[in-house]
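User: Teach me something about this protein's shape.
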Amino acid sequence: MWLSAIKLAVNTGSKIYANKQRQKEAMSQAALLTAEKMARGEREYEGKLLEARQNDYKDEFVLIILSAPIVVLAWAVFSDDPAMMQKIELFFHHFGNLPVWFQTLWITVVASIFGIKGTQIFKNGGPKQK
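Assistant: First, the predicted structure itself:
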């Protein structure tokens, strides 16, 4: 019984050691591939894109544009101004009647700015109804 337990422990230990060695080899291969990409200039290109996006304010601009109607709507509701509420209702009525191609374009552009796959929304005719 003790002999079979020792044999099992040795087998398990050798498998763990072999897996660790394969892991080290895979990490070495990944580092080599990354170095090759850097040598070809592919990796540096990705770094330049990230640097360019850090100094870009389009995300904040789109967020302000998307938040503006909500702020105006909140102001109209809390100010108790009937004329303002009529204007807000008229705005959303016209906004809701925009052509589908424009709505699709707008959602796709905004989604791409924030890194969301906006095309998935329209791929199968919109979201599934429950």
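Now, about its shape. The CA atoms of residues 67 and 103 lie 17 Å apart. Helices lie at 2-40, 42-54, 58-79, 82-96, 100-113, 119-123. If you'd like, I can walk through any region in more detail.
User: That's plenty for now, thanks!
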